[in-house]
Design goal:
Helices cover 81% and strands 0% of the residues. The chain is mainly alpha-helical. It has one domain. Helix 1 runs antiparallel to helix 3, helix 2 crosses helix 3 and helix 3 runs antiparallel to helix 4. The longest helix is centred in the middle third of the chain and has 28 residues.
């Protein structure tokens, strides 16, 4: 396995662990998060706060699962794993950039996720990764 594939697998695994842990913790503290939003927000109903918490949890869960699957199947030379990992990592990088712009700065956890996502994208786009992973087959 080329070093670029190893880096991609490790980085995607770390990102998956971070995102799935974040989603699990948010799910565990769901009631507390909703209550805090209702308490601190102005004119926010409990159903709106609940919807906001769920919409915050779902992207972490979906992207985390996609990265976990890609990290698991890329060493098995599954071509779809490269593209799923690339799409999930690029989406995570874009979400991180949008988050940084919306809060007007960069936090350390946000910077960590952004750097790891960019590392995954560059490793998955590396020429050595492309030659090691078989091409996707198209049906005629």
């Amino acid at each position: 396995m080329p070093p670029s594939v190893r880096v991609a697998v490790i980085v995607m695994g770390v990102l998956a662990a971070l995102l799935l842990t974040n989603a699990a913790l948010l799910w565990y503290a769901y009631d507390d998060a909703v209550a805090r939003l209702v308490r601190e927000g102005e004119d926010i109903s409990r159903s709106e706060a609940s919807q906001f918490v769920l919409m915050s949890l779902v992207p972490y869960l979906v992207v985390g699962l996609a990265l976990a699957l890609a990290a698991w199947f890329l060493p098995r030379r599954q071509p779809w794993a490269r593209w799923v990992g690339l799409a999930a990592s690029a989406l995570l990088a874009l979400l991180s950039l949008m988050s940084a712009m919306s809060i007007g700065g960069v936090t350390i956890p946000l910077l960590l996720v952004l750097v790891l996502a960019v590392a995954a994208v560059t490793s998955l786009l590396a020429r050595t990764t492309g030659t090691w992973v078989p091409k996707l087959h198209t049906r005629a």
